[in-house]
Amino acid sequence: MTPPEVVTRWLRLVVADAELSPYLIGVDLDRLAKHLTASLTAALGGEPAADAWRGLGLSEAQHRRVVDYLVGVLWAFDQPDDRIARVQRAFAGEVQA
After folding, report:
1. Which terminus of the chain has fewer CB atoms gathered within 10 Å of its CB, N or C?
2. Ramachandran angles phi, psi of 2, nearest 5°
């Protein structure tokens, strides 16, 4: 499992979500993927994740669903629970008010 592999699967899930996909219209997905990869790499290293979703207008519930997709991908890659929890906390901190 590499961060780019995780991000590729994560973005596929978000893009396939009928409620979330409209927020990605006009978004440069390659650029977003690079940003998400850097954020995930930081989170896996125990550092704060940069807010890759800022400005897309997601509600708190939608943002939670995006993070849930990430957790699902990490789980599918059979990552340790502590690593998944660390990444989840890092990305959940991005929730907008």
Report:
1. C
2. -120, 155
8 A C-beta contact, residue 9 and residue 70: no
CB 27 within 8 A of CB 69: no
Spatial contact of 35 and 87, defined as CB atoms under 8 Å apart: no
In the predicted structure, residue 95 carries a pLDDT above the cut 50: no
Query: How confident is the model over 45-70, as pLDDT tens digits?
Result: 888 888 778 778 999 999 999 999 99
pTM: 0.89
In degrees rounded to 5, what are phi and psi of residue 15? Answer: -65, -35
